[in-house]
Sequence to fold (420 residues):
Amino acid sequence: MKQIAIIGSGPAGCYLADSLLRLVPDASIDIFERLPVPFGLVRYGVAPDHQGTKAVARVLDRVLSRDRVSFFGNVEVGRDLSLEELMSLYDAVALATGASRDRRLNIPGEELPGVLGSGAFTGWYNGHPDSQPPPIDGVRSAVVIGNGNVAIDVARVLAKSATELAGSDLSPEVTSWLETQPIEAIHVVGRRSAADAKFTQHELAELGTLQCACPMVQDSTTLAGDGAIVETLRSFAADQSRTASVMIYFHFNLTPIAFLGDGRLSAVRFRSADGALHEIPAQLAITCIGYETRPCCIATPANGVFANVEGKVKDRLYVVGWAKRGPSGTIPTNRTEAQLVAQRIAQEVPDSTRPGRAGVLQLLAQRHVWWVDYAAWRQIDAAELACACDGRCREKFTTVTKMLEAAQVGQGLSCPSATT
Ligand code: NAP
Fold:
């Protein structure tokens, strides 16, 4: 029998568990998650108006429900258990901790109120317990820095009307903040050319379908090159006379060099390739320039990821997902990658008599750690679905305390000494 611990219950961790279940018939897999709720980026990164994409949570949920898998929510490796302990208790450990730290531009003014990383902003509109609302109001102009799909998500959520956002799981607080901002202009700014943009065509084209917003290219002479993205941008630029209550302007070849403002953001300064300076007035700027992995206990990332060779960090320690390859690819990329890492684990890790789950249950009991098991997660899930009102598909609990109350943790459900 192989006892395997996976740290992180996002798509990478769940797909790895799924592949291991198929490849190793007697594997016993424990998934540790610092929050009481699973699914990582699917719950807290995928845009709330893209519920079709979020539906992959049902596939991941089936993995957690399997007999040979145990979910340990509300257990943080580094706080409740150490990585060394997991390494001694399990035959293999996999880091699937994602990349949750916003990359920084490291330019003047980045600390000004009104400047946010995309992780902070998307975490807030997705109801992440660690997130804070933007500390500003009166946003008429927003600058979105970066030319990837996260920049598109952020621009779209800012641009959509309340009617278009109905049916999502945006919280009433987020809906109310968005509704009360007098947004007239959203500037999506790339440091390279339109042909270099990393948008996918489907996401970009969606901006052309919004009810109250109109995408436009600020300077259509920047649209050199071929391909679906440039073609879509050309279609946006074709009719310069179009207007809407919210204009989404695309700018290219502008490198951000400073955030300006006295006490709060008032403009973003860029330099173009010819050295000229450009300022775009803005009360809100969101940097969508990628993410880095955070340390996990003694495991320390280098260059934003855990150094690895095809998913292997060292003997019996593996890594998958954004923590392995950086913030790239789509959700299905994790499935393909997880299959390869699972094959390595299946081939390289011998069976042993390590205590695995029994040892962890003992440690959690000794430390009085109340964890959320799969049944308790389903209680949280059911309570969130039952709370939804005003057309929302779900009303997420936005604090750990409320999640634990809904899970009835501490009232006998997930008492480690009561479960083996
Ligand atoms: P991304 O696709 O890598 O885009 C990051 C953008 O930030 C690039 O345009 C990059 O420019 C720019 N950038 C990086 N450093 C910069 C700097 N110092 N100054 C200015 N610009 C800088 O990353 P992402 O948008 O965060 O998305 C992450 C992954 O999630 C991607 O694989 C994405 O496709 C995926 N995703 C998918 C969806 C979807 O399918 N609906 C939605 C969201 C995210 P350069 O190209 O010049 O480096």
